[in-house]
C-alpha cells in the first residue's frame, strides 16, 4: 500500500514501513482527519475532552498492539513512532491522552505487573473500555520526584494505605485505573499500585487555567488513608529503576510527538504562504519566507531521521537511556523553534485558533517540559558520554 506522502517528509521516511504497517497508519490517519481534526480547536478552546471519540480510538485496534496480552501482532517501534507522530500532527492533546493510556499506564502494568494482573487489566485497556492514568509527579516533586517523593504507602495486613498527593496527572479526572507510585513507609522503596476510580480516600480535581494541551484533563490527585488491596500492588515494581524503565520508552514517544508537531507547523505555514498574498503576490515568492520554510523543514527532517534511528535501536534491543533522552531533549527544542517560525511567518493570523498554528505553539510548551525537562535529559546524556554524574 502506498501512503499519501506527508508534505514535510522530504526523504520519505514513512516508506520504511512495511505494507501492513502502512495500512494501519493510513487507517489511523483517516480517522484523525475525519473525526479529530474538525473539533480539535473547539475542544481546546473549551478545555473539554471529547469522550465520544474514545470508542473510535478503541475500534482502531492499536492501543494494545505492543502487549502480548492483547490481540494482534506486536508492531515495530517504527510503526509505534509514526502513530505517535500522526496523532500529534493532528492534535497534541489527543496524542497525549493516547500516550498516557497506552505508554505510561499500560506500560507500567505490562512491565511491573504479574501475569494475573496483566491479564486482568490489559485486554480491556487495549480496547479502551477502561482508561488508564499514570501518577508520578507531585506538587513539590517533578524532576526530583525519584528522591523527593512524599506520597507514602504503608502495609496494613492485606492492604496498603496510601497518603499524599500527585499533580499534572493526564486523564486523571476520568481514568478508570490510575497507576500510582508511592514510597514504602517501611524501607523507602518506590512501589507501584493500581488504584481504581471511586476508591474511598482517592479524589481527583481538574487543573484549570492551562495555556497548553487544554483538551487533556490534567488533575490534582489526593490520597487520604486510601486503602488498596495487596492484589493491586504491581508485583514486580521494587524501586524507581522500574519507573525509569517506563519513562525511557515513553520519552522516545514524546520525541516522535515533537516531530509530528513540527510537521504540522511546516504544513500549515507552507499552505498559508502559498495562499496568502501581500504586495500583489503570494508571500511564498518572498525569499525570507522561503528561508523560514526551509529552516522549519530542516528541523523536522533532522529530527525525523533521529527518531527513525532510535526506533531501529529499540527493535534491535540495543537502545539505552541516553538514546531516548537525547531525542526527547533535542527534538522538543527544535520543535519550539519550528512552531515559532511558523507563527512568525503567519504574523497576526498565527495567534488565533482559526489558523490552527496557535494551538500547536501553545501545546509545544507542554511537550517541551513533560517526560523530563531538557535540562534533566541533558544530564542523562552527559552522564553517559562522560562517565560522570552531574545530578545533585
From TrEMBL:
The entry's keywords: FAD, Flavoprotein, Oxidoreductase
Organism encoding this protein: Actinomadura craniellae
UniProt key word Oxidoreductase: yes
Keyword flag Transcription regulation: no
Official protein name in the record: Acyl-CoA dehydrogenase
GO molecular function: acyl-CoA dehydrogenase activity; flavin adenine dinucleotide binding
Domain Acyl-CoA dehydrogenase/oxidase N-terminal: start-end pairs: 19-125
Ranges for domain Acyl-CoA dehydrogenase/oxidase C-terminal: 238-385
Amino acid at each position: 500500500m502506498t501512503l499519501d506522502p506527508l508534505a514535510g517528509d522530504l526523504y520519505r521516511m514513512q516508506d520504511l514501513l512495511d505494507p501492513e504497517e502502512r495500512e494501519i497508519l493510513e487507517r489511523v490517519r483517516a480517522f484523525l482527519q475525519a473525526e479529530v481534526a474538525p473539533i480539535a480547536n473547539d475542544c481546546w478552546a473549551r478545555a473539554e475532552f471529547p469522550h465520544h471519540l474514545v470508542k473510535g480510538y478503541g475500534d482502531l485496534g492499536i492501543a494494545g498492539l505492543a502487549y502480548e496480552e492483547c490481540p494482534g501482532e506486536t508492531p515495530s517501534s517504527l510503526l509505534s513512532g509514526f502513530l505517535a507522530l500522526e496523532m500529534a500532527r493532528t492534535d497534541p492533546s489527543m496524542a497525549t491522552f493516547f500516550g498516557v493510556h497506552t505508554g505510561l499506564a499500560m506500560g507500567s502494568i505490562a512491565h511491573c505487573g504479574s501475569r494475573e494482573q496483566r491479564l486482568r487489566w490489559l485486554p480491556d485497556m487495549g480496547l479502551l473500555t477502561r482508561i488508564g492514568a499514570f501518577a508520578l509527579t507531585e506538587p513539590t516533586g517533578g524532576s526530583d520526584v525519584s528522591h523527593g517523593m512524599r506520597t507514602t504507602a504503608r502495609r496494613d495486613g492485606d492492604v496498603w494505605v496510601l497518603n499524599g498527593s500527585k499533580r499534572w496527572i493526564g486523564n486523571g479526572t476520568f481514568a478508570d485505573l490510575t497507576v500510582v507510585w508511592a514510597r514504602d513507609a517501611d524501607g523507602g522503596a518506590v512501589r507501584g499500585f493500581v488504584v481504581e476510580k471511586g476508591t474511598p480516600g482517592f479524589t481527583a480535581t481538574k487543573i484549570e487555567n492551562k495555556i497548553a494541551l487544554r483538551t487533556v484533563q490534567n488533575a490534582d490527585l489526593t490520597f487520604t488513608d486510601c486503602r488498596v488491596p495487596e492484589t493491586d500492588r504491581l508485583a514486580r515494581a521494587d524501586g524507581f529503576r522500574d519507573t525509569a524503565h517506563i519513562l525511557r520508552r515513553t520519552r522516545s514517544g514524546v520525541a516522535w510527538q515533537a516531530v509530528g508537531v513540527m510537521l504540522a507547523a511546516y504544513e500549515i505555514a507552507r499552505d498559508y504562504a502559498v495562499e496568502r498574498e501581500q504586495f500583489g503576490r503570494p508571500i511564498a515568492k518572498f525569499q525570507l519566507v522561503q528561508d523560514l520554510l526551509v529552516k522549519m523543514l530542516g528541523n523536522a527532517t533532522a529530527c525525523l531521521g533521529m527518531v527513525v534511528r532510535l526506533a531501529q535501536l529499540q527493535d534491535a534491543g540495543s537502545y539505552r537511556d541516553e538514546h531516548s533522552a537525547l531525542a526527547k531533549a533535542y527534538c522538543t527544542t527544535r520543535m519550539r523553534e519550528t512552531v515559532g517560525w511558523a507563527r512568525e511567518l503567519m504574523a497576526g493570523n498565527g495567534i488565533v485558533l482559526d489558523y490552527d498554528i496557535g494551538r500547536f505553539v501553545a501545546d509545544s510548551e507542554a511537550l517541551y517540559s513533560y517526560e523530563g525537562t531538557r535540562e534533566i535529559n541533558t544530564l542523562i546524556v552527559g552522564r553517559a558520554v562522560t562517565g560522570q554524574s552531574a545530578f545533585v
